[in-house]
């Protein structure tokens, strides 16, 4: 939740550290920028050193970043607090790339196929849960500028606890017995070879662009929600409540959807319907003018005022968020159309595991074990001398 800890109280942070609104926004948006180069490094770390050491590295980076953010409040002679704040956020951003990419690998290595979607959903929802806590906790802790050091100190506690647990309690990267046929037959592909397979896979590229765009829209909307609602006269506490409701209903929907796709295996249909519904909600939010639509979308109460421009930051240029919201709705609609119209591919991993023995204890020789997987994968991905790798299978079914 560290990446969004400043956004719900952006106006107070700007006044306390003598920053502009744009600088405060970059304290959250730096996560998206850092994720671009560090994402590839995080994937390599997960594949090369395993889940255990990647998780420990992530926990220590996050803890170091949370401590670095508090230095401007303790060292009063510092003339450029923005540099330390940005440095701390950047370390936390490096840690978050490891966190975001871990759930899928954890689910594939530790859970059987009928539990994989639910396990992936639970791990993935940890990030929105942190956003929920930040939306509630930051406005609750910061009532005035003097409360900012308290807020930064409170956020060190979960980071330190996670660091302690990761260092002391994690012992293995993989279970002693593979939980599924796919996990039993996975062999690591070379990193660059795996990337080449992915970029040549049309279905994967479409899914990556659409899903990546959705994550970017969600992250930007979460970071700027306080300023968007502030333009309509709402307080920081109310904006934080709206962000919390936004996350709560998303978690409930993800829980229901994870259980559904675990039973039905209708992954493609569920993703397409979810994207389309998200686009409709974005359009409605961008065009909402009355009390009824605001209540339906974010469970808001009666609107207090409706000025055209933001008046939250005295002495700064007013901000109009209508164009930004319409742009967000347009991008989300475009991504939904691309996914629905262009993404049509069978889930080859399910096909491979369906042809494999349901019991891992019945698996025979290595050559016999690889045969069902080889029948389900395209010929282009079967050139590896040890059979299809985990990365090749992931590229095929993506």
Automatic annotation (TrEMBL):
Residues annotated as signal peptide: none
GO cellular component, one term: membrane
Segments of skewed composition (Low complexity): 378-388
Region (Disordered): 378-398
Transmembrane segment boundaries: 26-46, 53-78, 84-110, 122-142, 148-171, 204-226, 238-261, 273-301, 321-343
Membrane-related topology note: Multi-pass membrane protein
Keywords: Membrane, Transmembrane, Transmembrane helix
InterPro entries named in the record: FLVCR1-2_SLC49-like, MFS, MFS_trans_sf
Subcellular location: Membrane
Pfam families to which the protein is assigned, alphabetical: MFS_1
Protein name: Major facilitator superfamily domain-containing protein 7
Organism: Myotis davidii
